[in-house]
Structures are given as structure tokens and as C-alpha cells.
Specification:
about 675 residues; alpha/beta; N-terminal domain of TfIIb; Barwin-like endoglucanases; seven-stranded mixed sheet; six-stranded mixed beta barrel; 26 helices; binds ligand MGD; binds iron/sulfur cluster; binds molybdenum atom
Length: about 675
């Protein structure tokens, strides 16, 4: 018998960071189970989590650094790869300046503080402001919007009395929430689903509202109208804590339920009923899709309207509503740099509010910036040539780069276009801080991500890769940490929970603060010290200070007649699939067996109209491109709507359909949820 130990750590096969118990025998991870004591997953794992070993020990992992020679790759040493990359970067910097370097990290960077922090540090040390990530296609829109409304960022509580799933399907995308929902529904919590698809959870809901994609803002405004006009609002909360309510009242008069019915396809009667149910529940929470609303033409204003709904019903900092979780102090791995990232002029609110600047560039502007403004890219933990909108535009642009480096543990579509592909460590092979609980679900909890096994093959962590590259560029002094442990200890030091404490005393993780309800100090950290129903921050950058509704650019009410004739169906892309994270995990046999191929979903009457039956191969086409995949005819899907999953590569890649120039006007996010398409049988 060899040596056997159990290590408590987290799973990062998606950003939820569920708690795990990993059994390591003779240096090999032999078992991965859910950690019972963990407040998110309570001992359970989703199918992706169960497949961790198959993922990590996959024979398809990149084993050594690869260099593109002609049209294929050759294995080279890390030394050679880093020397050559450093040489190329130096050359570009001396000829064009440091800002021609862009770096990208994907949604894995959200749960991977070290990755996002180090990538950002690297580009700053080099002298470039251009850090791109999924932040400009996903989630930061709501963070920004809640920041300008509340000064801080309140999140939905896991345990609620009334769950409004507003374009969110936790059974596929949010495993911890689906566990909490299950428990709370049994104990009498209520559920409402607002979705163009009657997702299975809707069968257990108090109300299901079948909405036209991209029109959620109209519904939210009509709900505000009803709540105010029927005097269902929480006047005391509004008087004490908000500014601008008196301007909101006349503003919403035109947004009647009848007006919204015509736009949204949701009946006026249902809108009134939902408004009454919501306003009548203390401890109600709108769970807006994690990216659904962000990827529509009215995204920022939708998020504003949802915030205002929570506010005028007094559902802020009450159990079951939205709550401002105490923030944790971290050692900042990032680094300041001269100059502002791409997008700071076109979308100023994305970049800055009240002098608080963020390090992100606007990724939808990347294709038009290559090759003039951007000539080199380092991609760490992302697959932009599948995941970013408009694959044709991104691929065309990336092919013009002088240098593309990808750090990943598998070969990806982006890797195949790269000059160098470098092998990365999985989450079981490196140290880190597991901290997303707070960001998504208001859980002030922290865990140490432990290195359970030695790095496989020649894979390197982000720390090692970027530190070694920095040394070769003469900026090693800006990467002072001598080891990953030292880096993570630095991050944790200000938090009050030290590396040693989380390693030895609380390997299962610990709460860093108690949750607080009520409004401590009676103030918010906005300029007015109140919740800003009327937003001067929005007004200052030229947008409506009160929420409005903007019809999607490509829609039956806004697109030209000719466009609609060519593309008569409404298209929403990117419904999640429990078995996969974005473009990942397709080669994991246990997962692939559960979901072998992509399907677009379509209602029966629409399918019949276009002569398509379940299982038929069909071509879906937009103004930007086409995909081929099979149809799944399902009466759960609204007629006239097509749902196309994302993350598949090749001719089933949904982002062949999206358009990088079709953007939300305030923050520049791509519209992925309300486009127009045609279909025909292949
Ligand atoms: N059409 C459409 N497109 C969409 C969406 C949509 O709804 N519709 N959703 C968008 C959203 S919300 C998001 S967040 C993006 C996600 O976009 P991405 O984050 O770019 O997508 P992933 O496929 O998850 O790519 C992550 C890559 O990181 C690698 N990786 C995983 N862990 C590590 C690690 O520890 N280190 C390193 N170096 N690499 C690692 C994986 O192997 C994988 O190749 O996709 C967007 N794309
Ligand atoms: N298994 C798995 N889980 C994931 C991910 C993954 O790739 N795989 N990705 C993670 C990431 S990065 C993110 S951002 C989240 C995404 O999480 P969400 O954005 O919440 O996505 P879904 O849970 O798929 O729910 C989207 C729902 O919105 C509906 N819908 C589509 N268009 C509209 C619309 O215009 N209005 C309304 N009201 N509904 C609409 C769809 O029918 C679907 O039921 O998931 C995260 N979790
Ligand atoms: S939801 Fe699944 S994949 Fe995501 S962290 Fe939890 S177990 Fe891992
Ligand atoms: Mo996302």
C-alpha cells in the first residue's frame, strides 16, 4: 500500500468553486468527491465535477511547449519557447511601443485570482494597458450597474422566499443555486420563470412568463409602473435610503402593462399579477441570467430596472433579497500602468466611475484594432476564437497578429491559430485562493486551493510561466514572489485568514465575516450617500438616468423589412449545458456520452413551417455566417424563436452567427441573445 492522503480543495471546472475532497495515493489523484461541509455544494458535485480525474489525466493534454512550424506544431523546450517569445515581444515593443500587446483570460480567470492578477500584472509591467477578458461580454455589466446604483455590489441570496429566474436556468448553469432552490421549494419558497423556453423548473413555478428574447426591460418597466401606481412600494425604505424616486414616478407612467404586452408577448394580466406577487414578498430576489441580460441591446438599463425593482420593494439587505456582502481585503497582484485600455473612450462607464478605474479593455473592439493598435496577444485560460462574438471577425484579425501565445492544458481553436502553445497546470496542480462565493451568491467564505499533485508532464502554472517570461524581458523585479505559495500568502495576508490558517486549521474553508442585514450606518457609498434611482453617473456619459427600453437592433420591430424577410426568426445563443463549460470538456468521454452533439431548439409550429423535424440537420444563418447542427423540436420553446447553444467548434460554433458590431450602446457588450436568423434543412 502506498501513501494515501485526503486534501480538501475546490473544483474549478466552472467558476462556482465547489468544495472537494481529493484522495491522493502515491502522488496520484485517485478520487474526487464533494465536500459535505461546504456551504455551496454541501457534499455534492455536478457531472463535470465528477469527471475531474478524467479531465486532468486526459491523454489529450498538452505535454510540452509547442511551436508552429509551417502548418503544424513541433515540441520545443520551455527555455526555447520563452526566449523566442521574449525576443519577439522586445522587438515589437521597440518598433511600435508596449501598448501593441494585448492579454486575454477567459471565465476561468474569474475564479482564479492568481491568473487574472498575474496576466494583468504582466501587461502592465510590459507597459501595456490592454487587458481583455470575458468581463466585457459577461457579468461586469451588472456589477457596474449595481455599483452606480448602490455604490457597492449587492448579490442575490441563495435562500430566498421568491425566486424570479429571469433568463436563468440553474439546473444547467448554476449547480449551487439549483441545490438551494430544491431545498427551499420544498420548504414553501415560490418560483417564477421568465424565459422564452419553458425550462423544466417552470413546471414547478407559481408563474411562467414566455417572453420575447431581448425585451426584458419592457417587462421590468411595466412592473415598476404597476408597483408604483398601485402603491405597492415600500415608501419608508424609499424615503430613507434613495434619491430620484419622485422623478421615477412620472417617468414610468407611459410604461403600462398593455404597452409591454405588445413588445414582450407577456400578457398585461400576468404582468400585474407578477408585480403584485413580487411587491408583496419581503425576501424576494430577481436572479437575472448570469450573462443573459448583459448580451442584449438594453442590457445596462435592464440591470438598472431590476435594481430599482429590488429597491422600491425594500428587498435590499433583507434575508432572501439582494444583499451587500462584506468585501474582503486582498493583496492586489495587479499593477498600475500609463494609459487607458482600448474602449475607455467609446465606453467610458465600463472603464471608470467616480474616479474608480477598472483594468479591462472592451473585447468587442479587438478585431478592429488588429493589426494597427494590437500586434501581439497572450491568451491565458481562454478560447476567444470560439467564445467571443463573431468568430469570423476574431479569427480574421488574430491571423494578422505578429505573435499569438496560448497557455492552456488542451489544444483549442485559439491554440491552433497560435505561434506558441504552452502547457498549463490544472487546478489540482497549483496553489490558489478559492473566492467566488461572494461574487455570485453573497457568501463571505474563503478556502485555500491546494496543490494536490505535482504538475503533470511539463505543465507550468500561470505564476511560473509569467514570472519566467518576465525575467527574460528584464522585468523580473516586478514578479517578486519566489513561489506560488508565497504569492498566495501575499494575496491572503490582508484578509485576516492567513495561508497557514487556511492550510492547517481550516482546510475546509472559513467565513471571513458574518453576513449583515439592514443598512449599516444608514448610508451607501454613492456620491449622494443614497441608492441612486436617478443616476447622474449615467447622465454624465450621455445616457438616460432613469431606466428605459431599447428594442434590439436586429428585431421584428426594429430591423428593416428586407432584413426581416431574409432572417425571419429570433435567435438567442448560449443556453448552458450542464455537462460542459463553454468550449471545454467535449473530449471527456463520460460527459460526451451524456451530450454527444449540439442541437438547436425550435418550437413545433415554427419547425413545421420550415420543414424541419427533430434530428434533421439544418443550416442556421445570420448576416455574419452560418452553422450546421441538428434540430430538436420542443414545444417548450416559444414559436418564432431559435435557441442555439455555444461552445461547439467547427461548423457548429454559435459565434459564427453573432456580430461583433452589434453592441449594447452603454458598455459595448455584444448582443448574443436577440439577433435574427433563417433556417433551412441541410
Ligand atoms: N454565442 C455565445 N457566446 C458566448 C456566450 C453566450 O452566451 N453565447 N457566453 C459568453 C460568456 S458569458 C463567457 S464567460 C465566455 C467564456 O469564454 P472562455 O472563458 O474563453 O471559454 P472557455 O471555453 O471556458 O475557455 C477557457 C479555456 O481555459 C482553459 N483553462 C481552464 N483552466 C485553466 C487554467 O487553470 N489555466 C489555463 N492556462 N487554462 C485553463 C480551458 O482548457 C479552456 O480552453 O463565453 C462567451 N461566449
Ligand atoms: N454547465 C455550465 N454552467 C455554466 C457555464 C457553462 O458554460 N456551462 N457558463 C457559466 C457562465 S460564464 C455564465 S455567464 C453563466 C450563464 O448563465 P445564464 O446567463 O443564467 O444562462 P442559462 O442558465 O443558460 O440561462 C439562460 C436562460 O435564458 C433564456 N433566454 C435566452 N434569451 C433570453 C432573453 O432574451 N430573455 C430572457 N428572459 N431569457 C432568455 C434561455 O432560454 C435560458 O433558459 O453560466 C455559468 N455556468
Ligand atoms: S458546479 Fe460542477 S463544475 Fe462547477 S465547481 Fe461545482 S462541481 Fe465543479
Ligand atoms: Mo460568463
Amino acid at each position: 500500500m502506498g501513501q494515501k492522503v485526503e486534501v480538501l480543495t475546490d473544483c474549478t471546472l466552472c467558476y462556482h468553486s465547489c468544495g472537494c475532497r481529493v484522495t491522493v495515493e502515491d502522488g496520484k489523484a485517485v478520487k474526487v468527491e464533494g465536500l459535505e461541509s461546504h456551504p455551496l455544494n454541501k457534499g455534492k458535485l455536478c457531472p463535470k465535477g465528477w469527471s475531474a480525474q478524467e479531465n486532468i489525466y486526459s491523454p489529450d493534454r498538452i505535454k510540452r511547449p509547442l511551436k508552429k512550424v509551417g502548418s503544424s506544431f513541433e515540441e520545443i523546450s520551455w527555455d526555447q519557447a520563452l526566449d523566442e517569445i521574449a525576443g519577439k515581444l522586445q522587438d515589437l515593443k521597440s518598433r511600435f511601443g508596449p501598448q501593441v500587446l494585448g492579454v486575454f483570460s477567459g471565465s476561468i480567470g474569474v475564479e482564479n485570482l492568481e491568473m487574472a492578477g498575474l496576466v494583468q500584472r504582466f501587461k502592465a509591467a510590459f507597459g501595456s494597458p490592454n487587458f481583455f477578458s470575458v468581463e466585457s461580454v459577461c457579468y461586469r455589466m451588472r456589477i457596474r450597474t449595481r455599483q452606480i446604483t448602490f455604490g457597492k455590489y449587492p448579490t442575490e441570496e441563495l435562500d430566498s422566499k421568491l425566486y424570479i429566474l429571469w433568463g436563468h436556468n440553474p439546473e444547467q448553469s448554476d449547480f449551487p443555486l439549483s441545490l438551494a432552490l430544491e431545498e427551499n421549494l420544498e420548504n414553501g419558497a415560490k418560483l417564477v420563470v421568465i424565459d422564452p423556453k419553458r425550462i423544466p423548473l417552470a413546471d414547478r413555478a407559481e408563474m411562467y412568463l414566455r417572453i420575447r428574447p431581448g425585451t426584458d426591460g419592457a417587462l421590468a418597466l411595466a412592473m415598476i409602473h404597476v408597483i408604483i401606481n398601485e402603491k405597492l412600494h415600500d415608501q419608508e425604505f424609499i424615503d430613507r435610503y434613495t434619491v430620484g424616486f419622485e422623478k421615477l414616478v412620472p417617468h414610468v407612467q407611459k410604461y403600462t402593462p398593455e404597452w409591454a404586452e405588445e413588445i414582450t408577448w407577456v400578457g398585461a394580466k400576468d404582468i400585474r399579477k407578477l408585480a403584485r406577487l413580487f411587491a408583496g414578498t419581503k425576501g424576494a430576489s430577481i436572479f437575472q441570467g448570469t450573462c443573459t441580460q448583459d448580451q442584449t441591446a438594453n442590457g445596462t438599463q435592464n440591470s438598472r430596472a431590476f435594481s430599482i425593482l429590488q429597491v422600491i420593494t425594500g428587498n435590499i439587505n433583507v434575508p432572501g433579497g439582494w444583499a451587500i456582502s462584506p468585501r474582503l481585503a486582498f493583496g492586489n497582484v495587479g499593477l498600475g500602468v500609463e494609459g487607458d485600455p482600448i474602449g475607455s473612450e467609446q465606453y467610458p462607464l465600463f472603464f471608470e466611475v467616480w474616479g474608480r478605474k477598472s483594468p479591462y479593455g472592451v473585447v468587442t473592439l479587438v478585431p478592429e484594432c488588429i493589426p494597427d493598435k494590437l500586434k501581439a496577444f497572450i491568451v491565458v485560460g481562454g478560447n476567444p476564437l470560439v467564445s467571443m462574438p463573431d468568430t469570423n471577425a476574431f479569427t480574421g484579425a488574430f491571423r494578422k497578429l505578429d505573435l499569438l501565445v496560448v497557455h492552456d492544458f488542451f489544444m483549442t481553436a485559439t491554440g491552433r491559430e497560435a505561434h506558441y502553445v504552452l502547457p498549463a497546470c490544472s487546478h489540482l496542480e497549483k496553489w490558489g485562493v478559492a473566492y467566488t462565493y461572494n461574487v455570485c451568491h453573497c457568501l463571505p467564505f474563503l478556502m485555500l486551493r491546494k496543490k494536490c499533485i505535482e504538475p503533470l508532464h511539463e505543465s507550468w502554472s500561470e505564476w511560473k510561466f509569467l514570472t519566467e517570461l518576465a525575467k527574460r524581458l528584464g522585468m523580473g523585479n516586478l514578479f517578486p514572489w519566489k513561489s506560488e505559495e508565497e504569492l498566495v500568502a501575499f494575496e491572503l495576508a490582508p484578509s485576516g485568514l492567513s495561508f497557514d490558517y487556511l492550510l492547517r486549521e481550516k482546510p475546509e474553508g472559513d467565513y471571513y465575516q458574518k453576513k449583515q442585514y439592514g443598512i449599516p450606518g444608514g448610508q451607501f457609498s454613492t456620491p449622494s450617500r443614497k441608492i441612486e434611482i436617478y443616476s447622474e453617473a449615467l447622465e454624465k456619459v450621455g445616457f438616460d438616468p432613469l431606466p428605459i427600453y431599447l428594442e434590439p437592433e436586429r428585431s421584428p420591430r426594429r430591423a428593416s423589412k428586407a432584413f426581416q424577410e431574409k432572417y425571419p426568426l429570433i435567435l438567442s445563443t448560449g443556453n448552458r449545458n450542464l455537462y460542459y463549460t463553454h468550449s471545454q470538456h467535449r473530449s471527456i468521454a463520460a460527459l460526451r456520452e451524456m451530450s454527444p452533439e449540439p442541437f438547436f431548439e425550435i418550437g413545433p409550429l415554427t419547425a413545421q413551417k420550415y420543414g424541419v423535424r427533430s434530428g434533421d440537420e439544418a443550416v442556421v444563418e445570420t448576416n455574419r455566417g452560418k452553422v450546421k447542427m441538428k434540430a430538436r423540436v420542443d414545444e417548450r420553446v416559444a414559436e418564432g424563436v431559435l435557441l442555439v447553444p455555444h461552445g461547439w467548434t467547427g461548423e457548429a460554433n454559435a459565434n459564427l452567427l453573432t456580430d461583433v458590431e452589434c453592441r449594447e450602446p452603454i458598455l459595448g457588450y455584444p448582443d448574443m441573445k436577440s439577433l435574427m436568423c433563417s433556417i433551412r434543412k441541410a
